[in-house]
Amino acid sequence: MCSYFGWRLRFWRQRSGLTQQELGELLGYDHSHLSKVETGDRWPPEDLPARADRLLGAGGELATLWPLVERERQQMIRRGQAVGRERFGDDAGPSPQPTRAEVVMAIDWLLARAYSDLETRFG
Predict the structure, then answer these.
(1) Which of 49, 77, 82, 92 would you call most buried, defined as having the most Cβ atoms within 10 angstroms of its Cβ?
(2) DSSP codes joined into one string, the chain
(3) How confident is residue 91, by pLDDT bands cut at 50, 70 and 90?
(4) pTM of the model
């Protein structure tokens, strides 16, 4: 989920025409930190999803993904895996799967967003 979050952050940043440097300056993060978040090598800070949503006009997508990312991080902590500065240790193992309810929540949001976009474009 962390990698998916990073992929979506990159999508919204590029759609907004911002570089990592520019987004980092607007959010108060170094561009290298954002680069690692975008590639899934670092966990996003807790305040980043909501702030990036507003700044990039992502319509709540990043904030909606945050609980799934945080759940993954918490599960890794419980399993004793590396979650500090770097996301994965050598023994990180497979990423935990989100619950059915979390997947349904994310899919519902994405479908509502897609429907709204289509309705706006095609009436």
Answers:
(1) 49
(2) -HHHHHHHHHHHHHHTT--HHHHHHHHT--HHHHHHHHTTSSPPPTTHHHHHHHHHT-TTHHHHHHHHHHHHHHHHHHTT---SSSS--TT--SPPPPPHHHHHHHHHHHHHHHHHHHHHHH-
(3) very low
(4) 0.68
Instruction: Give Cα 84 distance to the centre of its chain.
Output: 17
* Distance between CA atoms of residues 9 and 27, nearest Å: 13
Check if the beta carbon of residue 58 is closer than 8 Å to that of residue 52: yes
pLDDT digits 0-9 by tens, 7-21: 899 999 999 999 999
Amino acid occupying residue 77? I
**Cα Rg, the chain, nearest whole Å:** 15
The first and second tokens of residue 118, run together, are 């289509």
Which sign, positive or negative, has the C-alpha torsion 109, 110, 115, 116? positive
Whole-angstrom distance, CA of residue 45 vs CA of residue 97: 21
Question: How many independent structural domains does the chain possess?
Answer: 1
